[in-house]
Amino acid sequence: MSPRAVGVGLIAVSAASFGAMAIFARLAYDGGADITAVLFLRFAIAAPCMAVLLRLRRQPWPRGRVLAGLIAMGGIGYVGQSLSYFTALTLASASLVALLLYAYPAIVTVLSAVLFGVRLTPVRIGALVLALAGTALIVGPELSGRPMGVTLGAAAAVIYSVYILAGSRLTPLAGALPSAAVVMTSAAVVYAVVALVQRPSFPTTPGSWASVVAIALVSTVVAITTFFAGMERLGATDASTLSTIEPVVTVALAWAVLDERLSAAQVAGGVLVLTAVVLLARATSPAPGPLPLDAPVPPS
Predict the structure, then answer these.
(1) Measuring CA to CA, how many Å separate 210 from each of 25, 31, 206, 266, 270?
(2) pTM score, two decimals?
């Protein structure tokens, strides 16, 4: 199997794992947990798991500038993105916030072309357009919210785009597992401080605790590690576009598990996203690798 095919598979696993998080979170909230508790427990459970996995694989922790960059990705980037996103959900409709967040593949594509010289081939552009159109159909038409909610939703997309681009440069230098371990540990430290300040409501039922553990293991350890591993093989542009499988998985699971209604528009949107995935999976031109940290940035 080619490295590109492996990369596509890894991003598909990552997106499916991230997509399941909304379902796990809903079940955790039903059992008494609040947002702060879920976010804290998510990384407090995931970080030690990654440390054990690194030890078993005998892989070293990153050092120096790479370590500092990964700490910033987790403690600033990932935390900033998630706080912006979850706060935006309290100020705007879920559809609007999701639509704003899923602008990140377009942002990543443009910035990759400007900063890293990634070629915007017809296949990449076509797949991106299909993925964004499909996402718009999936999240639905209820687009309402306060200006601050719109601002925070857009901020979440921008922060996540920068996070992905930083990861595309740092992950090949540290490796997927060490990179994910540092990101999760940094986020765990920040959320521990937040939990101390806000005194969150923790789960009160076995089912809620099981959902939190699933978020930590499936939607964090598996999701982040496979995303970094897939991005190493595909580059930030294609990895971001392929990640739009996530809302397809979320909607499908909401229909299957939570008995939520599935509209014809959402089905059509899912078809568009999956078509984009097929286009990128069949593409044969490899994505250029990331620049080393000390390399000059090509002119736009």
Answers:
(1) 11, 10, 6, 29, 29
(2) 0.83
